[in-house]
Amino acid sequence: MRIRLLLVLALAAADLWAQPPMAQQARALEKLRRMAPEEREQALQDMPPARRRMMEQRLERWNRMAPARKQRLQGSLENFRQMKPEDQEHLRGLVRKFNETMPAGKRVEGRRALTHLRKLDPEGRKKFLGSRRMKERFSDGERELLDEMAQSMPD
Amino acid sequence: MNAKNNSCPMQNENAEILLSYCARTLEPEQVIQVEKHLLGCAECREWAAGQQAVWAAMDTWEPEPISADFDAALFARIAATEQPSAWERWTAPVRQFLQGGFGWRPMLSAGAVALTLVIALSIENPFRKEPPVGQSVKLEAHEIEQAERALEDLEMLRQLEAPEEETSL
Ligand SMILES: [Zn+2]
């Protein structure tokens, strides 16, 4: 019984020791999340102010997220991390483009269209993007962007 | 106002104005126009109510009571999906033994057990529990970067989700 307990502890230690990158990220995030506000402020004090504010806002949002959503996003992040670095960068670029070029009033619908597109095969995507409804709402460029995003997204 | 006139956004497949109305991004005059229409059109009213529920939920996003187990379980899951390290492959028989015992064969040499224990005991306090939120935690510079990268990509992935999923549990 004692041996078994010791082995459990030994393996727990080994896990800490040999954490893979994704787990390290999750762990760092969790540590940050658990810090007292003053401590966090101190830890982040050397960051450029704008970057730091951005990070604090994101952390705040993450903290407030429902557990089920956290879990789903964490799953998406895992899948995203499985992608080749250049594919990850490509998708980041597409999302930047979406945020910069899609008019604010269309983004909600764009995200909805994206979710739908991801469920379709190439043929279905083509049909959906060519539908009168989509053509009325999104320009050619916008529909192309949505198509490319849908194809570049992780599962 | 006629319920089914030509200006009905739903009939014209022009839900955008309703979306904007729910997102509160319309000009005051447009708001009045839409609200007049909603009075007389059940279809639009119903659609807008559904949208508004989503927005209301987003506005009142309350922090979830943090379950200590939730994040721990998440990390366990993440770690489990990672490629097994050499160390994990090497200790797999021990894990099997610990998980049930039946699959375990006396494959593990006494030396391996001893080494496992030596490592366990030489790592500084590796068994401590995560401190509760707000307690003293030290964060290294590279960890800040890791957390930042995770947050950045989580934010991106969040933006890719349909708005409906923001509140789905
Ligand atoms: Zn209507």
Structure report:
The complex is a heterodimer of chains A (155) and B (169). Chain A is an all-alpha fold and 155 residues long. Chain A folds into 2 domains: 1-82, no CATH class; 84-155. Chain A has 10 helices and no strands. The model of chain A has no long low-confidence stretch (mean pLDDT 85). Chain B has 3 domains: 16-60, no CATH class; 91-129; 131-169. Chain B is elongated, with a radius of gyration of 28 Å. In chain B, helix 2 packs across helix 3 (42-59). The model of chain B is unreliable at 57-68, 81-85, 97-110 and 112-131 (pLDDT under 50). Chain B is mainly α. At the A-B interface, helix 1, helix 2, helix 3, helix 4 and helix 5 of A face helix 1, helix 4, helix 5, helix 6 and helix 7 of B. Bound molecules: zinc ion. Zinc ion is lined by residues 8-10, 37, 41, 43-44 of chain B.
Shape of chain B: elongated
Q: Please report the number of helical segments of chain B.
A: 7
Strand content of chain A: under 5%
State the end-to-end distance of chain A.
Answer: 43 Å
Catalogue the ligands.
zinc ion
Give the uncertain stretches of chain A in residue-range form. Answer: none
Radius of gyration of chain A: 21 Å
What is the arithmetic mean of pLDDT of chain B?
Answer: 62
| End-to-end distance of chain B | 39 Å
Order of helices and strands of chain B: HHHHHHH
Task: Determine the structural class of chain B based on helices, strands and strand pairing.
Answer: mainly alpha
Describe the main β-sheet of chain A briefly: none
* The number of domains of chain B: 3
Instruction: Give the averaged pLDDT of chain A, no decimals.
Output: 85
Tally of domains of chain A: 2
The most extensive interface between chains reads:
A-B, 80 and 73 residues
Largest sheet of chain B: none
What is the CA-atom radius of gyration of chain B, in angstroms?
28 Å
Find the count of extended strands of chain A (DSSP E, 2+ residues).
0
